[in-house]
């Protein structure tokens, strides 16, 4: 994840003082949390994710704790405030992986919100080359109404 992606996730999905759980690799999200004046659980508590519900959970994929996807998303749902989001950083290149992640999240009661594709550079006028994509981010949400976007 780039520094810019970390900043965009934190600024667009949280408010000052909100709790963010950082399960991503690298310091990019931690920097964005500090600059944006959000709060984060200490790394030693990541496995349990603390006692306070979070507004945003950012995780690399697959989960580092080795849990099955549906079980991981159930833990995420339990750690989120209503309306909170889980941002899943996917390795780019597998066209089926986003579908698998969305299905597992939906089974756990999270709803699909957005798919962000981040490229290394913006397009240039007249340049018809392919983008060099470095990050796919799926945003899942815990619905405030309780149905989390699920049918029925």
Secondary structure: elements and pairs:
Elements: H1 3-13, E1 19-23, H2 28-35, E2 39-40, E3 54-60, H3 69-79, E4 80-90, H4 97-107, E5 111-119, E6 133-141
Parallel strand pairs: 1-2, 1-3, 3-4
Antiparallel strand pairs: 4-6, 5-6
Helix pairs in contact: 1-2, 3-4
Q: What does it look like?
A:
The protein has 152 residues and is an alpha/beta fold. Helix content is 27%, strand content 28%. It contains 4 helices and 6 strands. Helix 1 (3-13) packs across helix 2 (28-35) and helix 3 crosses helix 4 (97-107). The longest helix is centred in the N-terminal third of the chain and has 11 residues, at 3-13. Residues 148-152 have low confidence and may be disordered.
Give a quick precis of the structure.
The chain is of the alpha/beta class.
């Amino acid at each position: 994840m780039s520094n810019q992606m970390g900043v965009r996730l934190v600024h667009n999905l949280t408010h000052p003082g909100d709790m963010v759980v950082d399960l991503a690799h690298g310091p990019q999200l931690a920097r964005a949390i500090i600059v944006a004046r959000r709060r984060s659980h200490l790394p030693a508590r990541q496995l349990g994710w603390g006692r306070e519900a979070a507004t945003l959970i950012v995780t690399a994929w697959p989960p580092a704790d080795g849990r099955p996807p549906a079980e991981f998303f159930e833990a995420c749902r339990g750690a989120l405030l209503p309306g909170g989001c889980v941002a899943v950083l996917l390795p780019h290149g597998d066209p089926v992986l986003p579908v698998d992640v969305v299905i597992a999240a939906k089974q756990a009661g999270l709803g699909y919100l957005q798919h962000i594709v981040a490229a290394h550079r913006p397009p240039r006028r007249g340049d018809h080359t392919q983008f060099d994509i470095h990050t796919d981010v799926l945003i899942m949400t815990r619905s405030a109404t309780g149905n989390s976007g699920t049918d029925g």
